Amino acid sequence: MVQQERAQTTREAIIRGAAEVFESYGYGSATLSDIIQRSGVTKGSLYFHFASKEDLAHAVVEAQHKLSFNSGKDPALQSDSAIETMMRVCRHFGEQLQTEPIVRAGIRLTLETSMFEKPVISPYTDWMKEFETLIQRGIDSGEIRSTVDPAALAHFIVPAFTGVQMVSNLLTGHEDVLERINDMWTFLLPALRPEEPSAAPSPLG
Predict the structure, then answer these.
(1) CATH number at residue 117
(2) Which of 40, 87, 88, 176 could lock 77 by a disulfide, CB 3.0 to 4.6 Å apart?
(3) Number of domains comprising the chain
(4) 98-118 pLDDT, tens per residue?
(5) pLDDT tens digits along 170-202
């Protein structure tokens, strides 16, 4: 048991060190030597847990997605309003981008998957399914207009959010990401809300 705990601690240290290196240099420029040095482990320990740099990059993405996706289900972020829940989840993700190195690294790696042999798909599909469920809940409650296609809207919101946080990183290093997320929802909300009933015509005199 002690040996298993030690192995898990070493694996976590490697992932944390790799996240810092990938965040700083990107996948293409990061080296295993950099990761070994940042993690404070031996070359043998790294290769015991991970067969290659790509294997390690996938582990960082998996750790990031687990952290973000699980924390997105925090009861504190949930609301009777499906729209409010989606907005809170997006904002929380934005806060993680500002404070969590492993989240920044995982997102950067997700955007650099053209360099991978094995594509990274599940983070996107998991969030799309989650938002599709929330959107359907909003439609059922009358909060979202009934003409909205839940799957189509989820497939729009998740890529739109990806673009918002990516451009925020390029322009400000995520300093304005919360403001940009707020802008995204400000523009989306009028398209989601049910139309107000037309005023009844005045009776003829």
Answers:
(1) 1.10.357.10
(2) 88
(3) 1
(4) 999 999 999 999 888 777 888
(5) 999 999 999 999 999 999 999 999 976 544 444
